Amino acid sequence: MSDDLAIAELDAPPLSLDAHRAIYGSLPPRPPLATAEHIVGRGGAGFPLARKLAAVASQRGPRVVVANGAESEPGARKDKALLTHAPHLVLDGLGLATRLLEAREAIVAVEDATAADVLERAIRERSDAVRVALLDRSYLTGQETALLAALEGRPALPRFQLARVAERGYKSRPTLVANVETLAQWALAARFGTSWHQSAGTRGHDRSTRIVSIALPGSTPTVVELAPGATVRSLLDAVGVTTGLALVGGLFGELISVADERAMARVLVDRADSSDELALGAGSVLLAPSATCVVCATSELVGYLSEERAGQCGPCDRGLPELARALGAGARPAELATVARLIARRGACALPDAAAHLATAITPADAAGHQRRRCHERPFALESREPSRG
User: For residues 108 and 132, is the Cβ–Cβ distance under 8 A?
Assistant: First the structure.
């Protein structure tokens, strides 16, 4: 096993509050905002936590803090692993945000009943006033405006709004929405200091560890904790995969060939600044060891996004099905690029952007190989959750 990672023990029971404090020690009651300075979001967008906190703090009125544990990426399990085995670390981070922002309400949003139950029991061990919201599963629920809509009792659909959620979020109140792993990392930095938290890794990045879930078709995902500087190869070595294709970073990430040694040598980071790096995004990796065709794999991924669409805007309602149809029909890269240009950066949310990014990564060589083989693979075996359409 590589020194770059550790595999999570998913069958281990959750830490009690006493066991949690024995391992991590006491939490400073009001650490400075500077302790969050180097932490970036772990939900996919990679937005700096300190900037989110400052944006909400600058607003008047009753504030709300939401811990986002609604994992929406196919095969994702890293947030569930964290919530079910170290719930107090997440609640510590949530408490820090609540106190710093003087928030009136704190919510943990999840889609998994086991995680909700563990959290409820952990909250009863503490004096924190935290509500656990168990939401219906949908790919869109993890998007922050869709998440807030679900918390308000409405369909989990993205909202097109000029005001940021930091200004008008849950029930029109200034709201911080932060991924549960992001909050857990802040709880560590607040205890041990930013120097300890950033003691290793690549200059210019959040240099703390990352939790990543690795999913194979038909198997329970493996959850690992990655050290800074880990490569794609060290990640895939954890599950013994040496062939096929890998989608790194979730559906907003990159589809790469496991046989491509240069791709395998790329360093996994929060935000890729060079061709030697690869962004982890939402911390989800989908593997298809038997896959041979990039076009078939991309067609399946874009088809999944099309099925999961909200249908609230033209690029989503009409553009995504058209792009999925073009991929299924074996369209050339130039034709795919034409459709992608019509939908990218035009939607009410970023879902069309993800599909456009995947489709335009297909090369002429990929397309030629697909035409020659006339294949119809579905290597990831994805199943749509069929959300409500707007």
Answer: yes
CA dihedral 201, 207, 209, 212 (to 10 degrees): -100
Architecture of domain 294-373: Up-down Bundle (1.20)
Question: Where do the CATH 1.20.1440.230 domains begin and end in the chain?
Answer: 294-373
Cα–Cα nearest to 186, from 19, 24, 60, 18: 24
DSSP string for residues in 295-357 = HHHHHHHHHHHHHT----SHIIIIIHHHHHHHHHTT--HHHHHHHHHHHTT-SSSSHHHHHHH
Bridge-partner residues for 267, per DSSP? 231, 277
Q: Where in the chain is the domain with CATH 3.40.50.11540?
A: 10-197
- Cα gap 82→357, rounded to integer Å: 30
Q: Is the pLDDT of residue 387 over 80?
A: no
For the segment(s) 10-197, the CATH number from 3.30.1360.200, 3.90.79.10, 3.40.50.2020, 3.40.50.11540 is: 3.40.50.11540
Nearest to 113 by CA among 83, 88, 91, 138: 83
In this predicted structure, the answer to whether residue 153 has a pLDDT above a threshold of 50 is yes
Q: How far apart are CA 334 and CA 338, in angstroms?
A: 6
How many Å is the Cα radius of gyration of the chain? 21
| DSSP code for 103 | -
Please, are residues 185 and 39 in contact by the beta-carbon 8 Å criterion?
yes
Rounded CA-CA distance 291/311 in Å is: 30
Rounded-to-integer distance, Cα 200 and Cα 299, Å:
39
Average pLDDT, the chain: 90
Q: Quick one: average pLDDT of 217-228?
A: 90
